[in-house]
Design goal:
The protein is mainly alpha-helical and 194 residues long. The chain has helices at residues 2-17, 24-31, 35-42, 45-70, 74-91, 93-101, 108-135, 143-155, 169-184. The N and C termini lie far apart (59 Å).
Length: 194
């Protein structure tokens, strides 16, 4: 429990000051801990950064698991994936900022693990697009490129989708799903041709 509180506090500090600009002393002050105690909980500054990345990926993958368990059409799954992802971005804005900006600071095995987990999530999104193409629900688009476009659209919201703001994650997820699904819909889904 204490370790997670340290991770959460560090995410706020890193989001405000940047990973490289933040020293151990600042992390100690922010967490009201001495250096020895901080290292006891986190091991190293990079381990702390990895823990922030894990927090985001754990939440994102749990959401993807819920979507897979719920089933439904590719359009329904895409809408649910969007809602799950935006919920994480909305609930963990500092973590997501660090996740998107500071991942190059991860090295060696930590960098490999992060890249592997990120790619695993991308494959889950690609699979939904591939299923939609296979059933004719979506046009014959490149699933990888389409997944990256979808991710870019959703990930960018970290800049403006704020907790306590006028929009909730759900308020944004529904129109995003509508915009994207209409854009990839196959001919059977039909657009009004006027």
């Amino acid at each position: 429990m204490r370790r997670q509180a340290i991770v959460d506090t560090a995410a706020s500090v890193f989001a405000r000051r940047g990973y490289h600009a933040t020293g151990i002393t600042e992390l100690c002050v922010a967490n009201d801990l001495g250096k020895g105690a901080l290292y006891h909980y986190i091991g190293s500054k990079e381990a702390l950064l990895a823990a922030i990345h894990d927090r985001v990926m754990d939440e994102v993958m749990l959401g993807a698991d819920r979507v897979a368990e719920a089933g439904g059409t590719p359009s329904q799954q895409l809408a649910m994936l969007g809602e799950e992802l935006l919920d994480v971005i909305h609930r963990y804005p500092d973590h997501v900022w660090v996740f998107l900006h500071e991942f190059p600071a991860l090295t060696g095995e930590r960098a490999e693990q992060f890249q592997g987990r990120r790619r695993e999530y991308e494959r889950r999104v690609e699979a939904v697009f591939r299923a939609g193409v296979d059933t004719g629900e979506f046009r014959a688009l490149d699933p990888r490129l389409t997944a990256l476009a979808w991710l870019g659209m959703h990930n960018y919201t970290y800049l403006w989708l704020k907790a306590g703001g006028t929009l909730s994650a759900r308020d944004v997820a529904k129109p995003f799903a509508d915009i994207f699904i209409r854009g990839v819909a196959g001919p059977a889904e039909g657009h009004d041709k006027g």
